[in-house]
Give the backbone structure.
Amino acid sequence: MIEMNNVYKVYDNGVTALNGVKTTIDNGEFVYVVGPSGAGKSSFIKMMYREEVPSKGHVKINHVDIGDMKDKQVPYLRRSIGVIFQDFKLLPKLTVYENVAFALEVIEENPRKIRRRVMDVLDKVGLKHKARFIPAQLSGGEQQRVAIARAIVNNPKVVIADEPTGNLDPDTSWEIMRIFEEVNATGTTVIMATHSKDIVNKIRRRVIAMENGQIVRDEHRGEYGYED
Amino acid sequence: MIEMNNVYKVYDNGVTALNGVKTTIDNGEFVYVVGPSGAGKSSFIKMMYREEVPSKGHVKINHVDIGDMKDKQVPYLRRSIGVIFQDFKLLPKLTVYENVAFALEVIEENPRKIRRRVMDVLDKVGLKHKARFIPAQLSGGEQQRVAIARAIVNNPKVVIADEPTGNLDPDTSWEIMRIFEEVNATGTTVIMATHSKDIVNKIRRRVIAMENGQIVRDEHRGEYGYED
Amino acid sequence: MKINTFKRHFREGTKNLVRNSWMTVAAVGAVTTTLVLVAAFLMLMLNLNQIADNIESDADIRVFIDLSAEEDDIDELGQNIGELNRVEEFYFSSKDEELEALVEDLGEDGEAWELFEQDNPLNDVYVVETYEAEDLAGVASTIEGFSNVDDVDYGSETVDRLLQFNQYARYIGITFIAALLLTAIFLISNTIKMTITARRDEIGIMRLVGAKNSFIRWPFFVEGMLTGVIGSVIPIALVLGGYHFLYINLNDRLNFQFIELLPWNPFAWQLSLMLLAIGAFIGIWGSVMSVRKFLKV
Amino acid sequence: MKINTFKRHFREGTKNLVRNSWMTVAAVGAVTTTLVLVAAFLMLMLNLNQIADNIESDADIRVFIDLSAEEDDIDELGQNIGELNRVEEFYFSSKDEELEALVEDLGEDGEAWELFEQDNPLNDVYVVETYEAEDLAGVASTIEGFSNVDDVDYGSETVDRLLQFNQYARYIGITFIAALLLTAIFLISNTIKMTITARRDEIGIMRLVGAKNSFIRWPFFVEGMLTGVIGSVIPIALVLGGYHFLYINLNDRLNFQFIELLPWNPFAWQLSLMLLAIGAFIGIWGSVMSVRKFLKV
Ligand SMILES: Nc1ncnc2c1ncn2[C@@H]1O[C@H](COP(=O)(O)OP(=O)(O)OP(=O)(O)O)[C@@H](O)[C@H]1O
Ligand SMILES: Nc1ncnc2c1ncn2[C@@H]1O[C@H](COP(=O)(O)OP(=O)(O)OP(=O)(O)O)[C@@H](O)[C@H]1O
Ligand SMILES: [Mg+2]
Ligand SMILES: [Mg+2]
């Protein structure tokens, strides 16, 4: 369960990205985060895996305040959350296989199990045949799918995706959405920032709409849109 | 005028990204390039400003074969073409203003004129108030708009855009499209790879559909889609 | 740490050397050049030190025996001297031998004095050597108290000066080596720091994916160690080969009797081991220190 | 190039130093440490060289005059010697003065000889100094041909050895300085290369946006030059300050007459200028060379 209580985020340069955000996301939910460019969607999401800490207010993951969390515990928090970053954040020197395997090596998983699981996931996102390529040798959409594979490879309790279909054609996008639905069906929370009206309106789930760092709408089975 | 004649592109690792492409794009045209992830859209576009050279076949820009082009001439070719890269390619240490101004400094434009023109363009893409930020301090969509501003700032004869709205919400996307239409109206060629069905179907223009490194459809006032 | 994880770290560390090839070249290059410099300077300084030692140990005490002393007295004096525990060895030199040596020392100047051989004005002498140059003064004053001693001379002024000069030279040498080593450490860790800073994004990504700091640090530890060890290969080869060459060729040429180089074995080996240790240490240290900076939350 | 463009390049080069702060620190640090080392070594070597020169110039020729020579003969011989054009100066030393000097030289050993003052067996002597130590042998053999000369001595063996030793020392010194300079060049350009390689993406982007290679190169040129110049500030300060300190303090203490340090002015200034030039040159060179690699199409 993710709880935010009156969360403010002011970056070093004075920009207020979150301006009093209050919400609760239960385990197993599927949530879209929508809003115009610069609304604070990425900032909102970054609070959940502690890439950024709130300037004011509290963020609790399973009742633990991440502000009070010890540095040593942060890696464990992050392992329980699979994140697809807006800019992918792939390790440029590692192959596709190694990039995905990394998330399992970190938790000291058995090497044989790693191999099986990584190949399974790459197959799911349609990149099994590019396992030995490095990111620079992939198209934009392929890189995005590697990021998706890495996020779901260790069966995290929460999957957070920041515009996971921005570089994908509609067909591939629907395939990825199917994967997210599958993951969600097994009880995993899915939180997804997106600009895709099509997807939000077709696969109806909870929609959190943001503007100027605030939540302007929070609707179950909602539509795309962020005008209040 | 851009002519491609039987162009093949095989990357070092053996991937064939272009598999015999033949097409002509006239001055002043507005062309969408669509196709699934990994179809070769970016590779196709990279041929036009010589980021990549064909493994076989010829690419001619205004009747000059870029294969025969001297190294010294490449910068001049690139100055006549404004490119929006799929991964933005902003200079991380420069501010938004400096990133955009760079395209004008390169052609040794008068400093006063640079200032005026850069602020104009930043205003157009809605980032005037973030002129002093560096890219890392921007949201994904904001970075994309800086890339757009840089591409159009020196009034190039050709604007090439690789998924210029991938990180933008629908509203901002339409604004950007309006800018492209404006630019196109003054006689500038616009070539744009995109995954946005909405845009392609609403603003009807020539559509080049690619799959597996080949052009599978080339239609004026066409629809989004790439099944043959 | 599981054994599999340990293997992984070692594999990663090694792979990283290959992946970041230009950085590896730069870092190994920095280690190599500075260690070569350190090695050359150490070879020079340790040998100069050895030479200084030799010069000092050449210094001795000359005990002038009373002209009136009988043979028995002389023997007794010798016995007394032999019982002193700071004395390494001593020998007797008759006044005739002394004259001969003097005439020889003076070269052409001395020829004139040969005429006076029949009327030798010199004393018989005991030449005494001590274990350490520093003991000369003490032993000399003890011997001065013995009977049948006319006078004692240990070239006090010359020896004192020499000792002082050697002391100076050693201070300068030690300062230089320390400076050189510090420079080497600074440059190498600087270079390694740069190679790692260039990978700050990588480290950031690892942390975002849930890697513990120790997990991130280990491959860098291995990488730093290997950088240092590889970087010390050429310096070690130069020491082993180059010093051999110098030793063979120079030792004969340097025909001043007091100059003698340290023997190749074990000196070259000891120095090599030292270089290896310095290389590995600096590599690890530079590497781990630099990573630390990016592991702050 | 337009004047505006030139200003821009200079501004960019300066800004880049600030923007890439950690790289600047690393590159300037490398320049600083290696130049300090170069400076220290140059100070040492040039002074040792000077000392060696002094020792050599102390060597002289002793012309032993026939015991039978009259005062006129002696004067004539003096005149003949004075006319030789490699002779710098010469003076007469009577046999009494010679004996005195000898007795003094021998120290306590010599006292015995004082008894023989009435019966001095030594010759009168002309002591001749030449401009260059290398001329000693030639002048000596010329003088040997003059009348009333009993014998000529210029310590041929000792001087030859000394000359040879100094030659060796100089070779070693020059080799060391050359090695040090090469190391400095390697390390500095290596560091600069790394700072630039870390910016290969940046350079790639500039090229994609239509910048000419020369346009990209210029700010790096400025940056390299500034790196070198800034890096030479501390070494220069150390030379100017440190050498002053050494000169004041050491020159008196080193009480061997033949050791005299090079005067602070102009030596320290010349060395500083040299360091500045080396710094700037290496900075520019390392910078421009490294950029070149990424400007290939
Ligand atoms: N590291 C940062 N430093 C300073 N300002 C930042 C930083 N990151 C984001 N911002 C600012 O905070 C605001 C919100 O950014 P955020 O990335 O959360 O927007 P977003 O909703 O994800 O937008 P997009 O849809 O374009 O990705 C923006 O105005 C941005 O300029
Ligand atoms: N530098 C490269 N080296 C090797 N292979 C590459 C390189 N760039 C692209 N490829 C491969 O070429 C194929 C076409 O890539 P391209 O980037 O042109 O696709 P795209 O149509 O732009 O895809 P997307 O919509 O995902 O951006 C892909 O299979 C990709 O893996
Ligand atoms: Mg965002
Ligand atoms: Mg693409």
